[in-house]
Amino acid sequence: MNNSSSQSGVLYLVATPIGNLEDITYRAVKVLNSVDLIAAEDTRKTKILLEHYKIDKPMVSYYSYNEKSRAPQLIDKLSAGRSIALVSDAGTPGISDPAFHIVKQALENSIPIIPIPGPTAFISALIVSGLPTDRFIFEGFLPVKKGRKTKLELLKSESRTMIIYESPHRIKRTLADVNEFFGNRSVVVARELTKKFEEIVRGPVQFVLAEMQKKEPRGEYVIVIEGASSNSISEENEE
Ligand code: SAM
Q: How do strand 11-14 and strand 113-116 relate by DSSP bridges?
């Protein structure tokens, strides 16, 4: 562990829009304008945001395939007193997006980390879902193959509202699995939040699945799933 001096720079984790470019805080814009370097998951996408807000800063890529090798390079810059803003493709860094390695290494090197809060898709989906928001769990993406069945079995008796991320290619399959493993529970499918084709479909999963069959799924999806009722959990235990 390198005990950085008080001159080390700050690592800012900056939340950016999940679609609508106006969903960014004044503070996020100010921080992006003030740092020495922006580490971005997708530099082309972040360039659009920076141009929109007339922010002219050097950028470097930081994404899942290079984060292990990139993190130490960024730590060196931070240790030398440079400040860095980490942004992901969309929403909050670290939420189903890279950030973990650099956060861990920054902590090991006593580098201050400051969160700049803002949008994250799952919270937006949850608050409009109409399902209980007092207790919930966020599962990110479900495993695609290995461990998927085990995870679904585990979640079957979860009583809190569940939130998962899904791609257009797998949305129907995942809803079909929810129906198979959990039964015809209430779900909410939130598509393209904050964007032109924003759409929210609520209802029992069989109904939502039937709606999804009407057109080819496109865009980005969040699925919010009703938790198991105490009745269904005790029925399961009796089986
Ligand atoms: N860091 C992001 C966040 O804070 O929400 C999540 C990044 S993750 C790689 C991308 C997934 O988030 C998408 O596949 C989708 O499930 C969800 N997502 C992101 N933007 C969305 C939007 N505008 N509407 C619905 N879902 C969205």
A: parallel
